[in-house]
Amino acid sequence: MNSKKVAIITGASKGIGRSTALKFAANNYNVTIVGRNHEELEQLRAEIEQENRQEVLVCVGDLSNEEFLKQIIEDTVQKWGRIDVLINNAAWRTIETMRNILLENWEKTIQVCLTAPAFLAKYAAAVMEEKKIAGVIVNISSVMFQRAGGTSPAYTLIDFPEKDSITLPNKCPFFIWSPTFTSGTNIPSAGEGILPCK
Q1: Across 121-137, average pLDDT
Q2: Which pTM does this prediction carry?
Q3: CA-to-CA distance for 145 and 78, rounded, in angstroms?
Q4: How far apart are CA 13 and CA 91, in angstroms?
Q5: Which domains does the chain show, CATH number per domain?
Q6: Among 68, 80, 123, 155, the one annotated catalytic
Q7: Is 29 a catalytic residue?
């Protein structure tokens, strides 16, 4: 097993996720960066490799796809043999009220903001337990988790219970002008389907 620690960051192409990936790399972690925008993730990889000389694994795909969730974990373990930190940062939302929200938007929001973090935590925790790593799983949630607005009813995230040596805090920054917040809609995927992590 590689002795250098490894962090997985979802929603890493911009905003909080990008800054988080840069910070982990600056602190001597190898990083798996996850998102939908291949070009922005490759730019981040180049920046990390040039500035910090850390290894980077890029995973491009849709977090509502369970096979992609498994691929992120499997490819990270295959490359480095360990997972020390999982940062569930990715988000997806639309601006709709409960009266006019479309079922497909409700389901997509739940898949990306609730199901994906839960199952990534499940898969990452299994690796941490198997490798006897005192890991950390952090869920970045929206300020709407504490004070819901009227225009994104499905946009929340749960608190996960802690188990043994795995720490699972749910962090809610007070207010950050992130692309998800400021755009009001989702940034379209750079491509359809799942690209191999590389």
Answers
A1: 94
A2: 0.78
A3: 35
A4: 12
A5: 6-183 (3.40.50.720)
A6: 155
A7: no
